[in-house]
Amino acid sequence: MESAMNRRQSVDLGRWIIGLLLIVLAVATIFPFIWMASTSVKPMGEVLGSPERLLPVTYDFSTYTKIWSEVPFGRYFLNSLVFSCSVVAIALFLNSMAGYAFARLQFKGRNLLFILILCTMMIPFQVTMTPLFLIIYKLGMIDTYQGLIIPRAADAFGIFMMRQFFLTLPKDLEESGRIDGASEFRIYFRIMLPLCKPAFVTLGVFIFMGNWNDLLYPLLLTNSEQFRPIQAAIALFAGKYGTDYSFVLTGLLLASVPTLAAYLFAQRFFVSGIAMTGIK
């Protein structure tokens, strides 16, 4: 009886320790956002005079109106939406097709080709950005939506993730489709694709967040405000507006809203998509 009570107490103590650790990690994760929101409403003198103070003494919301009137922030926002959403739509289609082919179709050199695609994940963007810039320049697509979207139309991670998910689906589904005379594309589009909604949404969130928050890539391929995405534009605020930190942090805070909304919208699919991908 006493040993059972001791075990129960040790289990309760372990749960309290884990809960306390999770609370500390949650506070550490959310604190930068709180500090960013607080600094965005501080006057410039207070930002420079006491940056360590979390809550402002006086609240100044003028940066939220100034950022829309003094710079084409709406244009930057639209550019990021067009860029990110277009990449998501095209990449999901191409990645899912390639993932289906590697998971279900038998063709010569399939495994070797898949390994070569995975090897590209180990090459940093800094290695390929010069050849990429030269190719886009030769094609005349610098400072265009096409130049931003086409190089991101497919990626190794998306192909790998969709392949792993397609491997979890039973083969009886596609075999029944072949018996009914369906083509391979019809089997993929009408039978297999509707079943991979969790992985589809999860990959879409990853792609959207990766492209929305990217900085170096759009800086490399855009020159004008007409096509510059929001993160690249915010990176130029410091030099253009003399390091107005409240101005910069206001832009960052507004720029983080779509990614948070995308995650909240896809949250119920996110966990199941991660859990089911890779279960063979």
Automatic annotation (TrEMBL):
Annotated Gene Ontology cellular component terms: plasma membrane
Protein name in the entry: Carbohydrate ABC transporter permease
Signal peptide boundaries: none
Record keywords, A-Z: Cell membrane, Membrane, Transmembrane, Transmembrane helix, Transport
PANTHER family registered for this protein in UniProt: ABC TRANSPORTER PERMEASE PROTEIN MG189-RELATED (PTHR43744:SF12), ABC TRANSPORTER PERMEASE PROTEIN MG189-RELATED-RELATED (PTHR43744)
Organism expressing this protein natively: Cohnella endophytica
UniProt-annotated location(s): Cell membrane
InterPro entries: MetI-like, MetI-like_sf
A GO BP annotation: transmembrane transport
Family: Belongs to the binding-protein-dependent transport system permease family.
Annotated PROSITE patterns: ABC_TM1
Chain segments annotated as transmembrane: 16-37, 76-100, 112-137, 149-166, 187-209, 245-266
Residue ranges annotated for the ABC transmembrane type-1 domain, each copy included: 77-266
Membrane topology: Multi-pass membrane protein
CDD domains the UniProt entry points to: TM_PBP2
